[in-house]
Amino acid sequence: MNTTKDLLAAAQMLSQRDEPYALVSVLRVQAPASARPGDKAIVTQAGIAHGWIGGGCAQPAVMRTVRQALADGVARMIRIAPADEGQMRELDDVLEFGMACHSGGALELFVDPMLPQTRLTVIGDTPLAAALTSLAPRVGLPVTVVAHGGDATHYADAQAVMTDDQQAAVSSGSFVVVATQGRRDMQGLRAALAMQARQIFFVASARKADVLKAGLIESGQDAAAVTAIVAPAGQAIGAQTPQEIALSVLAAVVAARRAPMAAESAPMLKSLPLPALVTQTAPQAAPQTTPQMVKAGGSCCGGGN
Q1: Residue 297 has what pLDDT?
Q2: Among candidates 184, 190, 193, 213, which has minimal Cα distance to 124?
Q3: Amino acid 90: pLDDT
Q4: SS3 track for 138-160
Q5: Would you say the pTM of this structure is higher than 0.70?
Q6: Cys staple from 50: which of 42, 185, 224, 265, with CB 3.0 to 4.6 Å?
Q7: Measured distance CA(77)–CA(172) in Å, rounded
Q8: Secondary element (H or E) of residue 253
Q9: Which residues are 79's β-sheet partners?
Q10: Which of 286, 261, 284, 270 is nearest to 72 (CA)?
Q11: Count of C-beta atoms within a 10 Å radius of residue 143
């Protein structure tokens, strides 16, 4: 059984790898049960657990809840009690699962998702790159700059500055903005594609982006990854200055950051032979719309080619 020190070490290791996990805590216990109030475990999306929250009877309900919490970032309280397998009900803010086996007892647990901090990587040594680096931290996005041959002192607000795009290494899952603006565009796009980014935004006109994307595919880059590059990048606000264009692009990044992630975990949930989950009743959110982009053929964000 792992100690609190072991759990903290495991959490730190996962955080350093930017791997999401959930802290699952036992709140109440009805005997007979192998867990005790205060027992905790760190559970990843892959199902690897550090710690102790009870025996195998609780595992299916815990794993399903953890995966949903990691998908939407919402903490949940669950109760696992004797009942026919698959029988579920909602008790106020608690989701009750039927026990998957018949040893008796009951558990109440709190599932708290711990998601990696969203990061932004800006590629380019341009006034726009500098503007993005200055503005992004104000909306909670730590920035890494890849400015080939650039001066690191121009990017004082960045957490890290790399001056060689051939050696750029950033954590996967970052949002990437290619803000080269005609200076090493193709090299910047190749560097972005090598980063396994969550999403790539390219600040360029639609015409220019189409030409460069075609060149990337012809050179052997993965066609699906190239097609997924968002270009022109940013919302159409008539931006003209580097600061205005940075605002436009960051608005698009924030929209992508807040987009629902549930679809990414749906196949994983369907593959598990787990009891059905009773979803909580909540007000229906307004449907999210795709950010308005500038029309094809126009300049990006109202700011040049």
Answers
A1: 40
A2: 184
A3: 57
A4: HHCCCEEEECCCCCHHHCCCCCE
A5: no
A6: 42
A7: 31
A8: helix 242-257
A9: 96, 108
A10: 261
A11: 23
CA nearest 63: which of 253, 291, 292, 271? 271
Distance of CA 54 to CAs 37, 114, 120, Å?
11, 21, 39
Please, what sign has the CA dihedral across residues 250, 254, 257, 260?
Answer: negative
CB contact at 8 A, 146 and 122? yes
pLDDT computed for residue 277 by the predictor: 35
80 in Cβ contact with 58 (< 8 Å):
yes
Tokens matching residue 274: 């787990």
The count of other CB atoms within 10 Å of the CB of residue 5 is 8
Residues 6+ positions from 193 with CB-CB distance below 8 Å:
200, 216, 221, 222, 225, 226
pLDDT in the model for residue 287: 46
**Radius of gyration for the alpha carbons in the chain, expressed in angstroms and rounded:** 23
Q: Token pair for residue 199? A: 């999403």
Backbone dihedral region for residue 301 (phi beyond 0: left; psi -120 to 50: alpha; all else: beta): left
State which fold the 120-256 domain adopts: Rossmann fold (3.40.50)
* Every domain of the chain and the residues it spans: 17-116+262-270, 120-256
CB atoms within 10 A of CB 154: 16
CA dihedral 209, 128, 256, 11 (to 10 degrees): 120
Token pair for 296: 């094809």
Q: Residues in the chain with pLDDT < 70?
A: 1-2, 83-103, 166-173, 260-305
Chain segment 17-47, per-residue pLDDT in tens:
878 999 999 998 888 878 899 999 999 988 8
Amino acid at 211: V
Give the end-to-end CA distance of the chain in Å, rounded to a whole number. 60
